[in-house]
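Reopening this one. Same input as before:
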Amino acid sequence: MSSWAERVHRRAADLGNVVTSCGHPATAPAYPYRLEKVKFGVPLEEVCKHNNNIPGPLLVLILKLNKESPNRRDVFRAPGHQGAMKKLIHFLQAGRLVNVDNYSVFTIASVLKKFLRKIPNGIFGRNGETELFAINELQNEAEQTDRLHSTKCASVELIIE
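Same output, byte for byte:
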């Protein structure tokens, strides 16, 4: 009979083809040595350039907020801990593994706000914002949907998907 450690390692090797990290195709290594680096202050198209996917570490933060923020008040109003924010941003930019359970929801929300605030020309860009406001002025909901799906703004395409 094999030892517990041998069974665990064998099981992990068997699952290696199934388990993938967020945003990576199944052909990518199951456990990369480095995660994707999250770039602050660059256009959204560059951040999500890998098949228009949100980088895995950023997606983990969003999912954590989605899970815990409905139970808290003023998540996006209350500031996060400044030291923890700097540390979390450093980990995201370096592509290091982050245990989000070590950070409060307020800190995670503050980091996401900072990421979004640093995107040049906003999330949608100037042309995308103008186009969205024009679509919002339309009265027919079906026409709004058609125009939204036919827009050329990359940020809008990311949100629609």
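So the earlier flakiness isn't reproducible anymore. For the record, Residues 50 and 107 are 27 Å apart (CA to CA).
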